[in-house]
Design brief:
This protein has 22 helices and 16 strands. It is α+β, with helices and mostly antiparallel strands. It folds into four domains: about 160 residues, Beta-Lactamase (2-Layer Sandwich); about 110 residues, GAF domain (Beta-Lactamase, 2-Layer Sandwich), CATH 3.30.450.40; about 130 residues, Alpha-Beta Plaits (2-Layer Sandwich); about 90 residues, Arc Repressor Mutant, subunit A (Orthogonal Bundle), CATH 1.10.10. The strands form three sheets. The protein has a six-stranded antiparallel β-sheet with strand order 3-2-1-6-5-4, sandwiched between helices. A five-stranded antiparallel β-sheet has the order 8-7-11-10-9. A five-stranded mixed β-sheet has the order 13-14-12-15-16, sandwiched between helices. Helix 6 runs antiparallel to helix 12 and helix 19 packs across helix 21. The longest helix has about 35 residues. It is elongated and about 100 Å long.
Length: about 600
């Protein structure tokens, strides 16, 4: 029997695009069925499924029922209601994780109900996969796809389904909030208790302001946080899962946040899905709310004080903050993907540019006809993703293209590196910003006369060469362009390498040949002697030899090059040759060298 084929495995880009589109809907679309219907259609498209649907949980009856469908043909299937733990739907909605079957009716591992089996048979369904929809620590239902032929669920398809289940839960909560606001307005108008009416007024006003913040700041959670901070009337802060402050006042020291009392309160909030209170030994009382979704800790709200009204408002805003953080992350991921795709088209000759290149460049202030700056951030490849995120977070980086490319971080910005010192503009901002973020790096900069692929590729190559040359010359941080490298920079612009080889051969060749034949270290000695300001003692320290050894080696260089190398012009040419040799890396014409500690002049 042939194994069942898999559901299509969507690419990461396709998943992020679907998530990003849903995030935009969360801020712009008010109609519940329109928003959730769009989630179902995107889920079907991602997984190539015949149908998609989601259910809502009825905790009182212990069942889950299908609420909205896309692609379902029969009314009986649309009206399915199942006890928790039965079938795929009942198991996923009970929070059992992602559940999948390649052939539902034939799968004896599932708990079947005869009436449901009849409905499934009538719809012609074979394969079903479902993921729980969680919000604020609660399972509110399940998102499912089904196919009228056997299908297995691969890892990428599973990831896509789980991502869309999160989006469906958030969309459901967003629309539920809108419905709750309308209900509260009706209750307020009908109510006769002045105290209750006042409390409802305050709650209604908070919800309306939070909804407005969601629509007005779709790219960040700061808008929702600002409304909440004003509403609770207490000092408030928002921290990422590691405890780092994201926004708000710093209420606690890093040591206090890492202490067992606050860590325990955060865990309690995560598990219970509500506000937890922590009392510190010094007398401070804090309310903490872990913002979670699908078991993931997104952030933590910390409020000074714990009066009942403020705690209730904090808890009430949990869903809004969850939505805001998910929207923020989805949009950031979608933008990162778009930037990566665009950078590859611009600097990788193997990737042909798409017809929409000009339009997409304009989103970042770039034009095929306007000059640009290309930066190459030379970092350890293992830290490239972290460095790229740090660059995106810099002030002024809003319209830069930033992407990890070929093991380094590539930045493309409108404008030039400037007529002044190396990299005036983007380069020093990146170098200084990374240093301040604890990721000191070396930044190579190059000017591109236009934002077109050909010019940008040449500039990218030059920026990479500049960064490599600066590192070879002993720099580990800061920024450089070809002009800041002086004569070395001018020479490395010769892409053939002919000029560099001729300079090295003419002014340093005899020394390199001697080192190769005698396995000595004359060239290295010259390098450290120049670096030490032509002083013997510091050069000897750098080489771990006696100053007399350095002096004798320099005398050997006299024998090889003649006395003219010590004149100002001779020293300039020799130092340039040494720098070019250093930039080129180990000379292929010389063998390994060794120093056995001898004070003999040639060594």
């Amino acid at each position: 029997m042939k194994p069942a084929p898999p559901f299509p495995e969507p690419s990461q880009d396709a998943i992020l695009q679907a998530v990003g589109q849903t995030a935009l809907d969360l801020a712009d679309v008010g109609d519940r069925d329109v928003m959730l219907g769009a989630v179902l259609r995107r889920t079907r498209a991602l997984l190539g499924a015949d149908m998609a649907y989601f259910s809502l949980n009825d905790l009182h009856s212990g069942t889950t029922y299908i609420e909205l469908t896309d692609g379902v043909r029969t009314p009986e299937y649309r009206a399915i209601r199942m006890p928790f733990g039965t079938g795929v739907l009942g198991r996923a909605a009970a929070g059992a994780g992602t559940v999948a079957t390649a052939d539902y009716l034939a799968d004896q591992a599932l708990n079947h109900l005869s009436g449901i089996d009849t409905i499934v048979r009538g719809e012609g369904v074979r394969a079903i996969a479902g993921a729980p929809m969680r919000l604020g620590g609660r399972v509110v239902g399940a998102l499912l796809v089904a196919h009228r032929g056997p299908r297995t669920l691969g890892p990428a398809a599973r990831t896509a389904l789980e991502h869309m289940a999160v989006q469906a839960a958030v969309a459901l909560e967003q629309t539920r909030r809108g419905e709750e606001i309308r209900r509260l307005r009706t209750t307020r108008d009908d109510g006769s208790d002045p105290g209750a009416r006042l409390r409802l007024e305050h709650l209604l006003h908070l919800d309306e302001r939070l909804m407005g913040a969601m629509a007005g700041s779709t790219a960040e959670a700061a808008g929702v946080f600002a409304v909440l901070a004003e509403s609770v009337g207490h000092p408030l802060s928002l921290h990422d899962p590691s405890g780092a402050l994201r926004t708000g006042r710093r209420l606690l020291t890093p040591e206090e946040l890492a202490g067992w009392r606050l860590r325990s309160a955060v865990r309690t909030s995560q598990q219970a899905g509500g506000v937890a209170i922590a009392h510190l030994p010094g007398g401070g009382t804090y309310a903490l709310l872990a913002i979670t979704t699908a078991g993931e800790h997104l952030a933590t709200l910390v409020m000074e004080g714990a009066d009942d009204d403020a705690v209730a408002r904090l808890a009430h805003a949990s869903a809004f903050m969850t939505v805001a953080l998910l929207v923020e992350r989805a949009l950031a991921q979608a933008d990162e993907t778009a930037q990566t795709t665009l950078v590859e088209e611009l600097v990788d000759s193997r990737v042909p540019p798409r017809p929409t290149l000009g339009t997409r460049l304009a989103q970042y202030g770039l034009s095929p006809d306007a000059p640009a700056t290309v930066l190459v951030v030379d970092v350890d490849p293992a830290g490239a993703v972290t460095a790229a995120r740090a660059v995106r977070g810099l002030d002024g980086a809003g319209r830069w293209l930033v992407s990890v490319h070929d093991g380094h971080v590539c930045v493309i910005a409108a404008g030039t590196t400037g007529p002044g010192p190396a990299g005036t503009g983007a380069a020093p901002l990146v170098a200084e910003g990374l240093a301040a973020a604890g990721t000191p790096s070396l930044v190579g900069a190059a000017h591109s006369p236009s934002g077109g692929p050909s010019d940008l590729r040449r500039a990218h190559t030059e920026a990479a060469d500049v960064a490599a040359a600066a590192r070879a010359l002993g720099r580990t941080t800061g920024h450089a362009d070809f002009a800041s490298l002086g004569a070395v920079g001018a020479v490395i612009r010769d892409r053939t390498g002919t000029t560099s080889r001729e300079i090295v051969g003419r002014h340093l060749g005899p020394v390199l040949d001697y080192d190769r034949r005698r396995r000595t270290r004359l060239a290295e000695t010259l390098w450290h002697w120049f670096a030490a300001g032509e002083l013997l003692a510091p050069a000897a320290d750098a080489l771990s030899v006696h100053p007399n050894t350095v002096r004798q080696r320099l005398e050997r260089v006299d024998d090889l090059l003649g006395p003219d190398w010590r004149t100002p012009e001779g020293r300039f040419h020799l130092h340039l040759a040494l720098r070019l040799h250093r930039v080129a890396g180990p000379d292929r014409t010389t063998g390994p060298v060794a120093d056995h500690g001898s004070a003999v002049a040639g060594r």
